[in-house]
């Protein structure tokens, strides 16, 4: 899953786990846990750092790439909103809660 894709991109770039961890500024032990799927829910900030070093879109780490996925990729405005949320410190859980609240609110109307 995510770990397998991180490992695949890392190896394709010819990087060791230590090199990727150092360049991304993340703990090698955490990266190892991700790659071995011991940790399956990495933070957005972690994925952003790894994706940057691997020179891939974060979506490539989150799901299998295919022509259909590429066509459905997030447009620039959504990418900007996601980046703003990440940079402001909004966690995935907080963002999910916000979405759930809005779904509930719309059903109430």
N-C termini distance? 38 Å
- Examine the coordinates and then state which fold CATH places here, giving the name of the CATH topology: 434 Repressor (Amino-terminal Domain)
Structural class: mainly alpha
| Helical proportion, percent range | over 70%
Q: What is the helix/strand order?
A: HHHHHHHH
Number of domains: 1
Number of strands: 0
Q: Work out the helix count.
A: 8
Protein name: Helix-turn-helix domain-containing protein
InterPro entries: Cro/C1-type_HTH (IPR001387), Lambda_DNA-bd_dom_sf (IPR010982), SinR/SinI_dimer_dom (IPR010981), SinR/SinI_dimer_dom_sf (IPR036281), TransReg_Diox_bact_type (IPR050807)
Keywords: DNA-binding
Pfam families: HTH_3, SinI
Task: Describe what is shown at a glance.
It comes from Alkalicoccus halolimnae. The chain has 109 residues and is an all-alpha fold. Helices cover 71% and strands 0% of the residues.
How would you explain this protein's 3D organization?
With 109 residues, the protein is an all-alpha fold. The protein has one domain: 434 Repressor (Amino-terminal Domain) (Orthogonal Bundle), CATH 1.10.260. Helix content is 71%, strand content 0%. The protein has 8 helices and no strands. Helix 1 crosses helix 3 (28-35) and helix 2 crosses helix 4 (44-54). The longest helix has 17 residues, at 92-108. It is elongated. The termini are far apart.
């Amino acid at each position: 899953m995510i770990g397998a894709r991180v490992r695949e991109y890392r190896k394709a770039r010819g990087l060791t786990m230590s090199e990727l961890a150092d360049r991304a500024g993340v703990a090698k032990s955490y990266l190892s846990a991700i790659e071995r799927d011991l940790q399956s829910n990495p933070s957005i900030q972690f994925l952003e750092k790894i994706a940057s070093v691997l020179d891939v879109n974060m979506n490539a780490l989150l799901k299998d790439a295919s022509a259909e996925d590429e066509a459905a990729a997030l447009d620039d405005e959504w990418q900007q909103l996601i980046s703003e949320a990440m940079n402001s410190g909004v966690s995935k859980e907080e963002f999910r809660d916000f979405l759930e609240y809005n779904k509930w609110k719309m059903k109430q109307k």
